[in-house]
Design a protein that fits this description.
Largest sheet: 3 strands, parallel
Helix content: 25-40%
Structural class: alpha/beta
Strand content: 5-15%
Radius of gyration: 20 Å
Number of helices: 5
Number of strands: 3
Order of helices and strands: HHEHEHEH
Distance between the termini: 41 Å
């Protein structure tokens, strides 16, 4: 019988006095909409956080969130829309109704069915202030 060394996991305790963060991490990114007070007590999206918006199909989730990221882009934020459901033709219809979506950078996951994980990793490595993933279920099942 072989002797197998079992390495035990040792928890690392942290003292908050030893930590420091960039103060900009705690500056909210306001949407400019009434919902800001619901997103955080500071008034807007907080950096480094995730939100999930749910609702029945067709209630306007994608449209509202695309509107937000278009406004963030106009404020100079680096934004990205990752679409797991729509393709270029679908979004073309959106842009006809909402021209402000035309300048958004979009990653259509259907274009990367042979290498979705690698594609999304390469795109995310570029760094973004705000990323909208629609729909999370479709994108995560691909990746």
């Amino acid at each position: 019988m072989k002797n197998i060394e079992i390495k035990r996991w040792k928890p690392e305790l942290v003292k908050m006095d030893n930590l420091s963060f960039d103060k900009n991490l705690f500056v909210p990114m306001p949407t400019g909409k009434k919902v800001d007070s619901l997103l955080s007590s500071e008034g807007g999206l907080m950096k480094g956080t995730n939100f999930a918006f749910v609702g029945d199909p067709g209630v306007g989730k994608s449209t509202v969130l695309l509107d937000w990221i278009a406004d963030f882009q106009k404020q100079g934020k680096k934004v990205l829309f990752v679409s797991g459901e729509m393709n270029e033709i679908d979004l073309y219809g959106y842009v006809k109704r909402f021209p402000k979506f035309a300048k958004l950078p979009i990653m259509f996951m259907g274009d990367y069915s042979d290498c979705p994980k690698e594609a999304i990793e390469q795109v995310f490595d570029k760094g973004y202030d705000v990323v909208l993933v629609d729909s999370w279920a479709e994108v995560t099942s691909m990746v």
